[in-house]
């Protein structure tokens, strides 16, 4: 049985942003193969966290 996204702990956008920064520093900004996939996954996770953390929009009258 595989874990679904809902089963995984949800990191904050700040946590994921720090992971992206660390990855970029560790690789001197050069991403290839596995590192590029890791970066892309982190960016998607960061965007999801940002959306999750935003307050709900009120409907316009």
Quick rundown:
With 61 residues, this protein is mainly α. The protein has 2 helices and no strands. The chain has helices at 13-26, 34-53.
What can you tell me about this protein's structure?
The chain has 61 residues and is an all-alpha fold. The protein has 2 helices and no strands. The protein is elongated.
List the helices and strands and how they pair.
Layout: H1 13-26, H2 34-53
Helix pairs in contact: 1-2
Please state roughly what percent of the residues sit in beta strands, choosing from under 5%, 5-15%, 15-25%, 25-35%, 35-45% or over 45%. Answer: under 5%
Instruction: Determine the fraction of residues in helical runs and give it as a percent range.
Output: 55-70%
Q: What's the β-strand tally?
A: 0
Radius of gyration: 15 Å
Please give the count of helices: 2
Distance between the termini: 46 Å
State the order of secondary-structure elements, H for helix, E for strand: HH
Unreliable sequence segments: none
Counting helices, strands and paired strands, the structural category is mainly alpha
Let me know the largest β-sheet: none
From the spread of the alpha carbons, the general shape counts as: elongated
Key features of this structure:
mainly alpha; 61 residues
């Amino acid at each position: 049985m595989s874990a679904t996204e809902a089963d995984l702990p949800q990191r904050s956008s700040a946590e994921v942003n720090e992971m992206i920064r660390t990855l970029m520093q560790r690789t001197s900004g050069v991403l290839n193969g596995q590192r590029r996939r890791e970066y892309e996954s982190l960016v998607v996770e960061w965007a999801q966290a940002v959306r999750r953390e935003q307050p709900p929009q009120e409907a316009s009258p």
